[in-house]
């Protein structure tokens, strides 16, 4: 994984894990790799992974079972929320980019409709 130097690494790891959950690579209730394993795989400091895991648990995306590790939540509402939040971030980024180019709301919708007809 290549990291964007403008964004804290632990936030990028959180996004990576959420994306894997959304794509079904990590399923609900599935154990996520240990902190040390993930740190080794991504070649980052163990503390960085620990921080990402703590944030995921605080958000309710994962839970920890003492002595067994961390697991993806089994809460369907949370899993759907993760996907919706990621979609909203993409839309927000797209709309902001289009507005920077001078497009208004109607122009943005027109561009999307034209793109979708071709896709």
So what's the oligomer here? Answer: single chain
Order of SSEs: HHHEEHH
Q: From the helix content, strand content and strand pairing, which structural class follows?
A: mainly alpha
Write down the overall mean pLDDT. 95
Over all CA atoms, what is the radius of gyration?
18 Å
Topology record:
Layout (H helix, E strand, L loop, with lengths): L8 H14 L12 H8 L3 H14 L2 E4 L3 E4 L3 H25 L4 H14 L1
Helix pairs in contact: 1-3, 1-4, 2-3
Write up what this structure looks like.
This protein has helices at residues 9-22, 35-42, 46-59, 76-100, 105-118, and strands at residues 62-65, 69-72. Strand 1 and strand 2 form a beta hairpin. The chain has 119 residues and is mainly alpha-helical. It has five helices and two strands, in the order αααββαα. Helix 1 (9-22) packs across helix 4. The chain has a two-stranded antiparallel sheet with strand order 1-2. The model has no long low-confidence stretch (mean pLDDT 95). It holds the Pfam family GntR. This is GntR family transcriptional regulator. Residues 7-75 form the HTH gntR-type domain.
Pick out its properties.
mainly alpha; two-stranded antiparallel sheet; 63% helix; elongated
Short description:
Helices cover 63% and strands 7% of the residues. The chain has helices spanning 9-22, 35-42, 46-59, 76-100, 105-118; strands at 62-65, 69-72.
